[in-house]
Amino acid sequence: HLDKLERLLESAHTVAPEEVPANVVTMNSRVRLKDDERNEEMACSLVFPLEARDGEDLRERSISVLSPIGMGILGRQVGHIVAGRVRVDEMLYQPEAAGDFHL
Fold first, then answer.
1. Residue 2: burial class (beta carbons within 10 Å; 0-12, 13-18, 19+)
2. pLDDT tens profile 44-95
3. Pairing of β 81-82 and β 86-93
4. What CA–CA distance (Å, rounded) separates 42 from 18?
5. Global pTM?
């Protein structure tokens, strides 16, 4: 997974935190994902591997940036389809948009 993440980061367009559009998934963003085929949705935060947890409380669910879905949503915008069927449905929180540049 590290090779895939490295390729993803090499292809990324780097901008200052203040210039990141509010609808782009960044580290520590909280998003709602929707699978229309299965009619399922979930809210999760994109985190570093050691912070990932499946919490029973849906507000606590987080996914590692090194997981397939984590790598899939990093840098994607609301509305983008990931893994062929999972849509980034809503941005619930993005550190840059909130002015939380320390995260």
1. exposed
2. 999 999 888 776 555 568 999 989 899 899 999 999 999 888 999 999 999 9
3. antiparallel
4. 28
5. 0.84
